[in-house]
Design goal:
It is built from four helices and eight strands; from the N terminus they run E-E-E-H-H-E-E-H-E-E-E-H. The protein is an alpha+beta fold. A four-stranded mixed beta sheet has the order 3-4-5-6. The longest helix has 17 residues.
Length: 150
């Protein structure tokens, strides 16, 4: 499910054009997912592999139904549409302008009371380093891609 939205960012080259925007249904929470998994395969907690396999099916069906799939502390999954912009909504064609559907993920997070900052356990503590050795075509050198160090 999607709707068309107009790009209202004046500095963007697609300003004023229309694009596809995914509509999200209600969330599929962990409790509902657990109920659906149990009804799909009737496994005990000890049979983790079977549960994970059933969970994959439930997540896929939830996403296809337009739900945001919330896996509690794991985070949330939802679908998004990649599309080209058009000048008028009447010009939009799914076959011509939709380039694909992608699954997006939002890791679980919480706000700290003291400063209001958002903390996401899955992404905290990541150290970003810029790669500085490139070959003459502008790509990261083969030595780096094969595990060498700069």
């Amino acid at each position: 499910m999607f709707t068309l939205r107009r790009n209202n960012i004046k500095s963007n080259k697609a300003y004023g054009k229309w694009y596809a925007h995914t509509l999200r249904n209600t969330e599929l929470d962990l409790s509902e997912i657990a109920s659906r998994v149990q009804s799909n395969c009737g496994v005990s907690r000890a049979n983790v592999v079977a549960v994970i396999t059933a969970l994959q099916s439930v997540v896929a069906k939830g996403l296809k139904g337009g739900h945001v799939v919330n896996l509690g502390e794991l985070g949330k999954f939802y679908l998004s549409i990649r599309s080209e912009s058009v000048d008028n909504p009447e010009d939009f064609s799914v076959q011509k302008h939709v380039k694909g559907v992608v699954c997006k993920y939002i890791p679980e997070g919480h706000r700290h009371m003291a400063d209001g900052t958002l903390h996401r356990p899955f992404t905290e503590g990541i150290e970003l380093k810029q790669m500085s050795e490139y070959d003459n075509t502008g790509h990261i050198s083969k030595r780096i891609r094969k595990g060498g160090k700069v």
